[in-house]
Give the backbone structure.
Amino acid sequence: MQVFDYEDIQLIPNKCIVDSRSECDTTIKFGPKTFKIPVVPANMQTIIDEKLAEKLATNGYFYVMHRFEPETRIDFIKMMNQKDLFTSISVGIKKDEYTFIDQVVAERLKPDYITIDVAHGHSDRVIDMIKYIKNKLPETFLIAGNVGTPEAVRELENAGADATKVGIGPGKVCITKLKTGFGTGGWQLAALRLCAKAASKPIIADGGVRNDGDIAKSVRFGADMVMIGSLLAGHKESPGKIIEKDGQKYKAYFGSASQYQKGEYKNVEGKRMLVPYKGEIMDTLTEMKQDLQSSISYAGGKDLSSLRKVDYVIVKNSIYNGDVY
Ligand SMILES: NC(=O)C1=CN([C@@H]2O[C@H](COP(=O)(O)OP(=O)(O)OC[C@H]3O[C@@H](n4cnc5c(N)ncnc54)[C@H](OP(=O)(O)O)[C@@H]3O)[C@@H](O)[C@H]2O)C=CC1
Ligand SMILES: Nc1nc2c(ncn2[C@@H]2O[C@H](COP(=O)(O)O)[C@@H](O)[C@H]2O)c(=O)[nH]1
């Protein structure tokens, strides 16, 4: 099997067909809606909160609200409905989550998107939850994950998932690969490629994106949407306070399976780090859009579909040669 990751790949340019990068269309239809770029902030407590979800929805970006304050989800859906904004929430697979789905149905709420968010998505417990949600809320676009193999993608799709999320352990604050020896850490892009080849429905590439160019690479290898944590952490709108250290400003970014999230040291597969404070998230998202427009122009096209066909070379860790980071 050919394995590689984001830093090992360079995409090969084609002749440009636009007069300006502004002509390149980065929009993506994902589920029932179309979004400005194929990027979604990770559904983690240090990445997204209700205020940011509202801002993203208002401005044409996809979001997935996290599931770590479960009791607030019903009010969140109602609040977004009142403002005529789309709703996108996360659930787990424990018993309470079935009760939650029942409550959503009883209150006649219809979330536009639900993401089943667990570490090891290739399991009968996830399949049971997919079937339960699809039965109770057939119109909701259901994302299930996380997985890292073609078999898992097929099984979750066959169970009824409308999209699958690929990435076990490539995240910046992830320690799954170290603690368990398993995952797609270090070869996430190759795993994405394998999964996308098996998929018949959309794929979200989740984790491991370190540069804007990795978004174009994700699309090249089969992603319809790219979930990003660390690059979107540390903004003014990111949850959490600014932390001052040695005259520099930071914000905390911690894993959803970290001790900080769980409140105890048990089955910990995530860590915490400080991310330099970055200012407004809309500026970062605008830069991502501009960089993606540039990628599309190098692909020799006018929209994201052109990225899917470009040739590539494997340069094995050498794209940073000569660069100082
Ligand atoms: N993308 C990634 O690489 C990873 C992401 N995460 C994130 O961390 C958060 C917590 O995830 P998770 O622990 O699944 O959620 P939960 O704590 O809600 O656990 C869900 C259920 O699955 C069980 N479970 C968890 N991991 C495994 C496993 N490896 N094998 C069998 N059963 C398992 C848990 O039981 P029990 O705890 O008793 O085993 C629990 O019953 C999520 O947001 C997830 O996305 C975590 C690790 C990897
Ligand atoms: N193994 C773990 N993975 C985690 C944890 N919390 C979140 N995540 C995953 O990371 C991505 C974000 O990755 P990044 O490289 O963009 O920072 C996120 O979407 C989850 O899938 C965790 O505690 N352990």
Summary: The chain has a mean pLDDT of 96. DSSP finds ten helices and 14 strands in the chain.
